[in-house]
Amino acid sequence: MNALLKLQSLWFFVGIMLLATSVSPAKPHSNSNVDKTFGFDDVKDSLVLIQTDNAVGSGFIIQDGDQRYIITNQHVILGSNSIRFRTISGIELKPVKVEVSQARDIARLQIRGSGGVKISSDIQQGYKITVLGNSQGMGVVTWLDGTISEVLKDRFEVTAGFVQGNSGSPVFDPHGNVLGVASYVLIYSETTTDGDAKWGSLPRRFAYQLEGVKWQSVSWKAYNKKYGMTLNQIDEFNDQLFDVVIKWSENPYGKILSEDIDNRDLKKWVEKHNSIINRLDRMRYSWKLGSQSWGEDKKLDIIIDDTRENRSAFTKLCDDKIRFIDMFQNQRDNTVFINNELEKRADELKALSDYAQKFSRACNQELIRLRFFR
């Protein structure tokens, strides 16, 4: 299995932990004989396109008593400096109040006016559903049919093929009532006969239920600054770390470009790695020419020691960020959702660190063998 697949398997392990709170699936039911009693024109005024400075997503408008809300995922809007909400007909929407779910990846934003779709709690395995949203962020609403394949405690799995940009989309029943919010996709593997993983063929798509949500009113500016920006910073570090580990594992004795690395400590680590590789390259070139000088073995021993030290520095880099996340998790006013998001990022770091240590130790052993059998 190549390095990329090994790292993907780590991401799969982290992602599948989301299912740890699941309950036994409901007994199969079916509304397969129920014809759709709504069409696009019936709900189009309630469909919302969301544009931020970081991404695009979807949302929808509900009428809850005398209150009207935009519903979307927290991750669609969290960490953004600017957010634009508009209906597919181009009407701009201005939220006046923001509430977030304490445990689920859902936000609702109160808006003025009246009108919107209704919520239903009739969620059964085998039921037909339709997802309407901004697939791939193209600014055009797509109609995606499917069924409910599994019902969990606070979410359900669907077969409708929603993709990036559909986060925050409504999941409708055949009558135009909303059952939940399209939220995330897990890609997991099949194991082939030779033990390798087969990727990308088994996506599972999940929507959060809207019934039973505990809402918490927040000052969006303060909430976004404290949590959104922190999660963004961790994501940027993890992404850059992931790129470094990919390049390092694909070519352990090659240099890694550091120009695009913003984190000072990670950049310093890469520069140290490149310095070690430069010294090793010069030594190998000397061996190739047959012009070995006195003390070559001592130089190689120093390189081996520096490689071992740099491996420890990489572990410390990951551990320091994990400790920061752990400290942030212990803040009293954190929601369950925020702590879950922090935990996922800490798990990513742990998986990356463990993987890097394994192949780095193997590289170090190769250098030691080179010391005796070059």
Structural summary, described in words:
The chain is of the alpha+beta class. The chain has two domains: 3-12 and 26-218, Beta Barrel (Thrombin, subunit H); 220-373, no CATH class. Helix content is 40%, strand content 25%. It contains seven helices and 14 strands. It has an eight-stranded antiparallel beta sheet with strand order 5-4-1-2-3-7-6-14. A six-stranded antiparallel beta barrel has the order 8-9-10-13-12-11. Helix 6 (296-329) packs antiparallel against helix 7 (336-373).
Sum up the structure in keywords.
2 domains, 7 helices, alpha+beta, 6-stranded antiparallel barrel, Thrombin, subunit H, 374 residues
H and E order: HHEEEHEEEEEEEEEEEHHHH
CATH class of the largest domain: Mainly Beta
Q: Count every helix, treating DSSP H or I runs of 4 or more residues as helices.
A: 7
* Distance between the ends: 28 Å
Rg over CA atoms: 25 Å
Number of strands: 14
Beta-strand percent range: 15-25%
Mean pLDDT across all amino acids: 83
Short structural summary:
This protein is an alpha+beta fold and 374 residues long. The protein has seven helices and 14 strands.
Secondary structure layout:
Elements (H helix, E strand, L loop, with lengths): L2 H14 L23 H4 L3 E6 L3 E9 L2 E6 L1 H4 L5 E5 L4 E2 L3 E5 L5 E5 L16 E6 L8 E10 L3 E4 L11 E3 L5 E14 L5 E13 L5 E4 L1 H31 L13 H26 L6 H34 L6 H38 L1
